[in-house]
Amino acid sequence: MSEVEAFTGPVVLDFGNEWCGFCQAALPFISAAMAEHAQIPHIKIADGRGKPLGRAFKVKLWPTLIFLSNGKEIARLVRPDNTDAVRDALALIDNAAN
Hints:
The chain is an alpha+beta fold. The protein is built from four helices and four strands, in the order αβαβαββα.
């Protein structure tokens, strides 16, 4: 958790797993929005029962995207179902960093 808090600037943490059907369904939306914000690090975290980072962020469903600015949570998306929702959250951390 301290490594996450040490991030400077905007960062997106993406909790899920490759085999998760919900994660696969959200992938096109996440990928499209992240491609427009290539300067923002996108860290995929393979989550699972008992994983400390997922528990620290109280992740209950996959995918969960945590949008951070300077180590602080600015926005959270659970199971995004469109690109605009991801874009809007990215705009929040882009603006918070400036």
